[in-house]
């Protein structure tokens, strides 16, 4: 039987999404919001992602990263309401990818 409850990685993952949505609607994403999203991304990458999940993770990160970049570039594809949300989520996934790549590089150097 699986574990019940949430671990730190799951909480940071959900926290980044909640922060992106709430801040976009309430006050807009500011510098403090991006710092918190960065911290959540570092925690999620270090705690959640294992080597066996790397291919799935990279596909997911690339997809959300592209959407996030489009949002930050004010692409006309996304409605104005969605741009800050996808921009913040893109920043989160970019952070996750960078930390995971560093973690994977350190692991490869040890072998």
Tag the structure with descriptive keywords.
77% helix; 0% strand; mainly alpha; 111 residues
Question: What do you see in this structure?
Answer:
This protein has helices spanning 8-26, 31-48, 54-72, 82-110. It is mostly helical. The chain has one domain.
Return the domain count: 1
**Percent of sequence in beta strands:** under 5%
Mean pLDDT: 75
Uncertain stretches of 5 or more adjacent residues = none
- Cα(first) to Cα(last) distance is 34 Å
Which value, in Å, is the CA radius of gyration? 15 Å
Major sheet size, sense and barrel closure: none
CA-based shape: globular
Number of helices: 4
Give the helix/strand layout:
Layout: H1 8-26, H2 31-48, H3 54-72, H4 82-110
Helix pairs in contact: 1-2, 1-4, 2-4, 3-4
Short characterization:
With 111 residues, the protein is mainly α.
């Amino acid at each position: 039987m699986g574990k019940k409850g949430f671990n730190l990685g799951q909480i940071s993952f959900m926290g980044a999404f909640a922060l992106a949505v709430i801040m976009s609607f309430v006050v807009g994403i500011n510098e403090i919001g991006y710092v918190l999203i960065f911290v959540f991304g570092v925690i999620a990458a270090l705690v959640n992602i294992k080597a066996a999940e790397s291919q799935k993770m990279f596909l997911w990160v690339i997809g959300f990263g592209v959407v996030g970049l489009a949002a930050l570039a004010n692409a006309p594809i996304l409605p104005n309401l969605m741009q800050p949300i996808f921009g913040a989520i893109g920043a989160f996934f970019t952070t996750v990818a960078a930390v995971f790549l560093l973690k994977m590089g350190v692991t490869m150097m040890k072998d």
